[in-house]
Design brief:
Layout: H1 2-13, H2 20-29, H3 33-36, E1 55-58, E2 65-69, E3 74-79, E4 82-84, E5 91-95, E6 103-110, E7 115-121, E8 129-132, H4 144-161, E9 181-184, E10 189-192, E11 195-196, E12 203-206, E13 212-214, E14 219-224, E15 234-241, E16 244-251, E17 253-254, E18 261-262, E19 267-270, E20 282-288, E21 291-293, H5 296-299
Parallel strand pairs: 8-10
Antiparallel strand pairs: 1-2, 2-5, 3-4, 3-6, 6-7, 9-12, 10-11, 12-20, 13-19, 14-15, 14-18, 15-16, 16-20, 17-19, 20-21
The structure holds zinc ion.
């Protein structure tokens, strides 16, 4: 270091404070930091407690979720058929689809080849059903023309939902993106002369156009539409990590861009009525991989 700083000065002012041999020896003892950067090894701290079983807590019900830890020595884990990601401390997030059965099975494969199981009771919900005396008509999307326009939108949504970005929102206590009258509940469904229509995949909150919405948890923006999609309108998707993500539909404006990291409480955009919508509201939907989840079970009752 000294030799290098003095290199030019030495020629001008005789700054030969470090003889060449010493400089070489010093370089051996203390090589430049860039060369010596150690590669971090993904191992838990040596004093980490041994966990023989899964631990978990959360909302053990349809549309709900759990957070927990995998057993020590786990090399892979799954809930049912769904692979579960876990961090260096063994922490994971998992969730139960709207139509999940009454039990779910956690499975861990350990480094020594052993398997650890946990059976989780998943309580059923009484979904809001509305019986209507009209025939189920095919959604407005049956024409070939519409399908051509629709397919790239569906592809963009799929890519955003499965982006798998590194983010830690899955660990946070979530907040409401906006408060207001709940005008549509997750999971509600119309039955058309005995024929069930598709259920409502999100939670609707009615507020005037222009009302700001904030990030319920931190994450990475994986979709911010440049122009309204035919059904979702202006659509924003945030990846919260570990397969968990949120979508915000019908927005009047979007204030963030794809690739942006957002923190909990940060303004994302504003409520609108773009796309297939009958009035200004936020449709907020949450997914964990393929499972559709109830936003109410993340934030509790509307304050
Ligand atoms: Zn909705």
């Amino acid at each position: 270091m000294i030799a290098r700083i003095c290199g030019i000065a030495a020629l001008l002012a005789g700054c030969a404070v470090v003889p060449p041999a010493d400089a070489a020896r010093q370089a051996e003892v203390a090589p430049p930091v860039a060369v010596a950067t150690p590669v971090p090894t993904p191992a838990p701290p040596p004093d980490a407690p041994i966990r023989a079983d899964f631990t978990y807590a959360g909302e053990l019900t349809q549309g709900g979720w759990i957070r927990g830890t995998v057993p020590s020595g786990t090399v892979s884990a799954r809930l049912g058929d769904q692979e579960i990601a876990f961090d260096l401390q063994g922490r994971f997030f998992a969730a139960f689809d709207r139509d999940a059965g009454t039990t779910a099975q956690l499975v861990a494969i350990l480094a020594n080849g052993d398997t650890v199981n946990a059976i989780i009771p998943v309580s059923p919900r009484a979904w809001e059903l509305e019986y209507v005396n009209t025939a189920l008509r095919p959604g407005g999307g049956s024409s070939a023309d519409f399908q051509r326009r629709r397919q790239p939108e569906l592809d963009a949504i799929w890519n955003a939902r499965t982006a798998n970005m590194p983010a830690t929102g899955w660990q946070e206590d979530w907040i409401w993106p906006v408060t207001g009258r709940i005008s549509g509940r997750f999971g509600s469904q119309r039955i058309y002369r005995g024929e069930p229509g598709s259920y409502h995949s999100g939670l609707d909150i009615a507020r005037p156009t222009g009302t700001a919405i904030v990030a319920p948890a931190s994450g990475v923006v994986t979709l911010a539409t440049a122009a309204p999609f035919s059904i979702e309108g202006n659509l924003l998707i945030i990846d919260h990590g570990q397969g968990l993500n949120s979508a915000f539909l019908h927005l009047s404006r979007i204030d963030v861009a794809e690739g942006d990291r957002v923190v909990q409480g940060q303004t994302l955009g504003a409520i609108g009525t773009t796309g297939r919508s009958t009035g200004p509201h936020l449709h907020w939907s949450i997914k964990w991989h393929l499972a559709r989840l109830d936003p109410l079970l993340f934030v509790g009752p509307m304050p």
